[in-house]
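Lecture notes, unit on protein representations.

Consider one protein chain, 132 amino acids long.
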Amino acid sequence: MSGFPDEVEGYYAELAERRGWPGETVAAIRSTVELIRDLDRGTASRTYGAAVDDYGTDWLYEAVWHEREWVVVRQLGVGEDGDVRRYWWQRLEDDEGMLTDQALDREDWGLRPLTREDFYTAWDDPGWSLSA
């Protein structure tokens, strides 16, 4: 990958090697990373939401309006055990999970409204919890 910070390039190169991705998969991941990065940096309308899953993990989402749907550009999970998972263009996936590839749907996902301020408070300080 080129055009990304060295640590991002290194992360995706290591992930591709470890998972044995063929060239087509590497190209598809690169395209997705670029899209999510561009949406994240863009000025399109945004929405935020939060939910607690069946395992007690707080999930927070930031989504951008793109091609008639809400595309999640940042996703934060904070488990009851303090385990923190952040997914965005710099880390679409890891061994624990991935940035959702589904359009955000408040009703189907049972999301509570969340302000931008609350989202970024949690993003910057994952000690914050919906259920605390």
